[in-house]
Design a protein that fits this description.
This protein is α+β, with helices and mostly antiparallel strands. The protein contains 12 helices and 14 strands. The strands form 3 sheets. It has a 6-stranded mixed β-sheet, with helices on one face. Strands 2-1-5-4-3 form a 5-stranded antiparallel β-sheet, sandwiched between helices. The longest helix has about 35 residues. It binds adenosine-5'-diphosphate.
C-alpha cells in the first residue's frame, strides 16, 4: 500500500476507535454523532483544498501554487515541482524557437516555411522583401495566392523541386530571384529565394562583352580575309600590291590595339591593388605623355602642360601612365586641327587632380554617363579613323578606381571637353624634388 492509503486508513481507524470508545462510554448515538462529525470535518477539509486546486488550475502560475495541510501539503508540493519543471522547459523551448527564428532572419536568403497545404507558417524579412509578404498578416495564406507569377504556380503544381527557377519579383519588377522549394518533415516545405539581380547583370554584361569583342575583331578580320583573297586571286602590279599590304597592315594594327587594350583591362581587373610604396614622378610622366600627344597630333594642335613640382602620386606607374595617356590622346583625337589641348596637374581640396581640357567636338550630356562602358562610342567612324578601340575610357576608369580616384567629365558639344582625374590625399606624396623635371610649357 502506498503512503497515502496507509495514512487514510490510519485516520479512519483512529476515528473508528475513538468513536467506539465514545460509544462504550456514552452510548451509540454519541459514537455515530462523533463519527459523522469527523467525516464532515474531513470532507470540508478536502473540499476546501480541492477548491484551491481548481482555482489554481484555472490560471496555473508557478509562483501561486496554493499551500495545503496534511496530505494536500504533499500534493501541492509535487504540483509546484511539476509546474516549475514545465515552466523551465517552456522557457527553454521559447528560447530555442527564438534562436532558430533569429538564425532564419539572419540568413542572407529569403525563407518561407510552408505547411503540407503550401500555407505560410513563417517567413523571414528577406522573403517579405522578395515576395512582398507581410509576416503577421499572411500567415495561413496559401503561397500561390500571394506569389502569383504563372511560372511559380506551375513550379509548385509540377512538384519537381530538384532545381531552382528564376523569377522576376512582381512588385517593382527589378529584382531577379532564384527560387527553390525544399520538402522536409511530413510534407512541409521550405521556400528559399535568393536575389540574383547583380549576378544576372554581370552575366548579361559578360555576354554583351563577348559579343562586342567578337564583333570588334570580326570586322578587321573580314577586311583582312577579303584583301588576302584579292591578293591571291589577282595578279597585281607591285604598287597596288603594296597598297593592299598596307591596308592589311592597318587592319592587323587595329586588331593588335584591341587585343592590347583587352589585356590591359583584364590585368587591371585581376591584379592586386597597387601598392602605395611605388613613387610616380608625375611631372616626368606627363612630359612623356605630352611628347606622345605631339607625335599623335603631328603639329595640328597646340598642346600645353602645366605641372609644377611639389607633389606626386603613390601607385602603379604603368596604370597611371595608361590612364593619363588615354585621356590626352582622346583630347587630341577628338579635337579638330587648330584646336588646343591643356594638361594641368594641380592640388585640389580632396588631394590632387589631373585636368585634360580640349577645344574639340564635345559630348552631348546624354552620352556622358556611358562613356566608360567598354566599346561605347559616340561616333564610331571618328573613333576608328583615329585608331580608337572603344576601350580607352574603360581603362582610364579602372586604373583610376584602383587608386581610389574618380573621373569627372564636363563637356559642351562643339566647344570642347574637360576630363578630370581626382586623386584622394592618401595617394598624393611630396615630390622627390628634382626641379628640372617640372614641365611648364
Ligand atoms: P575610343 O577608342 O573610341 O576613343 P574611348 O573609350 O577612349 O574610346 O572613348 C569613348 C568615346 O568617348 C569615344 O568614342 C568618343 O566618342 C568619346 N570621347 C572620349 N574622349 C573624348 C573627348 N576628349 N572629346 C570628345 N569625345 C570624347
Amino acid at each position: 500500500m502506498d503512503h497515502f492509503l496507509i495514512r487514510m486508513a490510519a485516520l479512519v481507524l483512529a476515528l473508528a476507535v475513538i468513536s467506539l470508545l465514545a460509544g462504550l462510554a456514552f452510548g451509540s448515538a454519541v459514537a455515530w454523532g462523533m463519527f459523522g462529525l469527523s467525516v464532515l470535518v474531513a470532507l470540508v477539509f478536502h473540499v476546501w483544498h480541492l477548491r484551491a486546486l481548481i482555482g489554481w488550475l484555472s490560471d496555473p502560475q508557478v509562483d501561486q501554487v496554493p499551500e495545503g495541510r496534511g496530505i494536500w501539503e504533499h500534493v501541492f508540493a509535487q504540483l509546484y515541482h511539476f509546474a516549475r519543471g514545465a515552466a523551465r522547459q517552456k522557457s527553454q523551448l521559447v528560447r530555442a524557437l527564438a534562436r532558430s527564428r533569429q538564425a532564419g532572419q539572419a540568413l542572407p536568403d529569403g525563407v518561407v516555411v510552408l505547411d503540407q497545404d503550401n500555407r505560410i507558417e513563417w517567413c523571414n524579412e528577406n522573403a517579405e522583401a522578395h515576395f512582398g509578404l507581410a509576416q503577421q498578416a499572411d500567415v495561413g495564406q496559401p503561397i500561390t495566392n500571394l506569389v502569383r507569377q504563372p511560372e511559380f504556380v506551375a513550379y509548385v503544381d509540377a512538384g519537381d523541386f530538384s532545381k531552382p527557377i528564376q523569377l522576376r519579383a512582381a512588385r517593382g519588377g527589378l529584382l531577379i530571384l532564384s527560387v527553390q522549394l525544399i520538402p522536409y518533415g511530413d510534407a512541409q516545405k521550405l521556400l528559399l529565394s535568393r536575389d540574383i539581380t547583380q549576378l544576372e547583370k554581370i552575366e548579361t554584361m559578360r555576354r554583351d562583352f563577348v559579343a562586342n569583342v567578337s564583333h570588334e575583331l570580326r570586322t578587321p578580320l573580314t577586311v583582312l580575309a577579303g584583301f588576302l583573297e584579292t591578293v591571291r586571286e589577282l595578279k597585281l602590279d607591285p604598287v597596288r600590291m603594296r597598297d593592299y599590304l598596307n591596308l592589311m597592315g592597318d587592319q592587323t594594327t587595329r586588331m593588335q590595339r584591341i587585343v592590347d587594350d583587352l589585356l590591359t583591362l583584364s590585368t587591371l581587373e585581376s591584379a592586386p591593388e597597387p601598392s602605395r610604396n611605388e613613387h610616380i614622378d608625375v611631372a616626368r610622366l606627363l612630359a612623356k605623355v605630352k611628347d606622345d600627344a605631339n607625335a599623335l597630333s603631328g603639329g595640328r594642335h597646340r598642346i600645353t602642360l602645366d605641372a609644377p613640382p611639389g607633389f606626386d602620386l603613390a601607385g602603379a606607374e604603368s596604370e597611371i601612365a595608361s590612364a593619363f595617356g588615354n585621356l590626352v590622346s582622346n583630347a587630341v583625337r577628338y579635337t579638330p586641327a587648330g584646336g588646343e589641348v591643356r594638361i594641368v596637374w594641380r592640388a585640389s581640396p580632396a588631394g590632387a587632380e589631373l585636368v585634360v581640357e580640349d577645344t574639340g567636338v564635345g559630348i552631348e550630356a546624354r552620352h556622358i554617363p556611358r562613356l566608360t562602358e567598354r566599346f561605347y562610342r559616340i561616333d564610331r567612324g571618328r573613333s576608328r579613323e583615329t585608331g580608337g578601340t572603344g576601350l580607352g575610357l574603360a581603362i582610364v576608369k579602372h586604373a583610376l578606381m584602383r587608386h581610389q580616384a574618380t573621373l569627372e567629365i564636363q563637356s559642351e558639344p562643339g566647344k570642347g571637353s574637360r576630363f578630370t582625374a581626382c586623386f584622394p590625399a592618401r595617394r598624393v606624396v611630396p615630390a622627390t624634388v628634382r626641379p628640372e623635371n617640372a614641365a611648364t610649357t
